[in-house]
Amino acid sequence: MDGALALREQIVSGERSVEQVVADTFATIDALEPRLHAFTTLDRQGATTRARALDRELGTGATPGPLFGVPIALKANMCFEGRESNCGSRILAGYRAPYNATFVQRVLDAGAVVVGMTNMDEFAFGSSGENSAFGPTFNPWDATRTPGGSSAGSAAAVAAGMVPLALGSDTGGSVRQPAALCGISGFKPSYGRVSRFGLIMFGSSLDCVGAFARSVREVEALMSVISGADERDSTCVPLPPLDAEPEAHDLRGLRVGVPDEYFADALESGVREAVESALREMQQLGAELVRVTLPHTNVAVPTYYVIATAEASSNLARYDGVRYGARVEGDGSLQGMFAATRGASFGREARRRMLLGTFVLSSGYYDAWYQRALKVRRLVARDFARAFESVDVIAGPTNPTVAFSLGERVDDPVAMYMSDVLSPPINLAGLPGLSIPCGFAEELPVGLQLIGPALADARVLRVGRVYQQHTAHHLRVPPGARVAEAHA
Amino acid sequence: MSEPRREDIELVAATAALARIEIPEAELPALASEFSRILEAFRVLQAVDVAGVEPLLHATELVDVLRADQPRPGLERERVLENAPDRTPEFFRVPKTVGGD
Fold it and tell me: CA-to-CA distance for A192 and A335, rounded, in angstroms?
């Protein structure tokens, strides 16, 4: 057993108390945080109080939940009652959630202990963590590099061994890409598989709550807890929580699609080698590789940014200084307050996206940009549907490069946007996507992305799990990580 | 970065007004140049053949998702107001709207 699951067993058997585990967790966090900055807030008091309550509960003989006593971190765009959900933004600094997100309540009901909220690009706008208003997060493998984003802190915290589990959100790759760059497992479920109630919105048709852990087994356990219908989110697919597929020994009978477009020139050679090696490993396990084509891969990037920024501009209109968050008086008028508050409090990338989104929705441009993008979105979804007629999963690199240096891309938005064709199409089509470590290039982790048809979440996870039964890439830890000590 | 055209600067200024985001005048030219570069990179969208293709608003295309019409308590007033930058006991307080804006 691994990480979170082993930890639960140790707690339930009485070998360790939850209070001890939580104390050890904060000791690890205190040792590593100065170097990594994975968290925006820590909830030492709340976590300790809860740990003691859980220890008492164990004593009464009540059946412990599937994540009993397991420490978990939440991305700062998630509502955890009474705690600060600042979304990495000055405009929500100090904002305390008045309720629990559905997925947070489920994690609590399963017995987990939330230790804090993790750092992120402001409102999830970014792929590096550098757009956080509170300073960047650093990659545990190389502190001169970003951990990816926007779920930067959640990925770094798990990779460094601060916590065994973390939740993130994936709108255009924000769980899968940092998982790849940090050498851990990260899963984006099918759209609608997990309730978004309590996830502070970026793109309502794209956002998915996702899971980080060091192994797919732990990801499966976390997904089983948080997924399933919720009447408070009408975009939720009416299905019960995810059930992991039964144990399997190999990949015989599995048809794996390999898209031509995912192995184009922009792919770093080290990444290409690691992923091709992973594909050969899958073949050795009995999988059949099938060439497929996803012709709208490249145009999916602008399609994504048009739709995502349009939705974001609408969702973020609520940050106006009235009900929560920052307020700047401006010229004393109501409209002046709105404009001054938003102008002073949004960061550069957030402002950029608000403007883009407002533009593509505005009169005279709506048809040529937003409506057109929605049509291309259907073509992107059709590409996948067509490919899945002949394969069971699609495989390729999660990201074209390994972790990049801090400062390398943040000043060039076009380069940042266009650098990643591999993540956003999956969000446009609402498909499940898993990133798992498959090797290293320049001593930095490389991620393999597995994509499934809509609602084939359990299948994608099972394939990843079987791959990890036969490989050891996911067991490698960054220098200085405290994996064995805190969570053997 | 090339000098932005007058109409690009006006476009960004007009968009910012729509988005209710105050932008200092001095920042407009750089923002306009950046805006143009982004839209230029996105222009490939215009070349895609979308004849006869319906827009896809969201992947699941669920419709008419309703729940039973049973009243239930919402969030208590105090919780709703607790993050307010300015409030009275019962309301959010904002600058006057009547007779100006």
Answer: 36
Global pTM value: 0.97
Distance of alpha carbon A302 from alpha carbon A148, whole angstroms = 20
Give B16→chain A minimum CA distance, Å.
Answer: 6
Residue written as token pair 């009408």: A234
C-alpha distances in Å from residue A116, one per residue of A122, A159, A219, B52: 17, 16, 19, 49
A150-171 burial by CB neighbour count: b if 16+ within 10 A, else e? bbbbbbbbbbbbbbbbbbbbbb
Helix (H, G, I), strand (E, B) or coil at A447: strand
pLDDT means per 10 residues, chain A with 488 residues, are: 86 96 97 97 98 94 94 98 97 96 98 98 96 98 97 98 98 98 98 98 98 98 98 95 97 98 92 98 98 97 98 97 95 95 96 97 97 98 98 98 92 86 97 98 97 98 98 93 55
Does the N-terminal peptide bond of residue A150 adopt cis geometry, omega within 30 degrees of 0? Answer: yes
Gap between the Cα atoms of A185 and A187, Å rounded: 7
Largest CA distance in chain B: 60
Ordered strands of the A393-397 beta sheet: A39-42, A113-118, A71-75, A165-170, A208-213, A185-188, A433-441, A444-451, A393-397, A255-259, A288-292
Cβ neighbours of B77 in A, within 8 Å: none
- Determine the average pLDDT of the residues in B69-98: 93
Q: Chain A within 8 Å of B26 (Cβ-Cβ)? A: no
Contact across the interface for B20 and A191, Cβ inside 8 Å: no
Nearest-angstrom CA–CA distance, A300 and A136: 28
The token pair at A379 is 């073509």
Average pLDDT in chain A: 96
Instruction: State how far the Cα of A112 lies from the Cα of A106, in Å rounded to an integer.
Output: 9
Angle (CA) A398-A255-A280 rounded to 5° is: 60
Of B38, B58, B92, the CB nearest to A413: B38
Q: Exposure of B2 by Cβ count < 10 A (0-12 exposed, 13-18 middle, 19+ buried)?
A: exposed
CA A400 to each of CA A177, A265, A269, A304: distance values in angstroms, whole numbers, following the listed order: 10, 9, 9, 18
| Assembly ipTM | 0.95
Closest-CA residue to A206 (of A411, A385, A456, A431): A431
Instruction: Tell me the C-alpha distance between A168 and A76, whole Å.
Output: 9
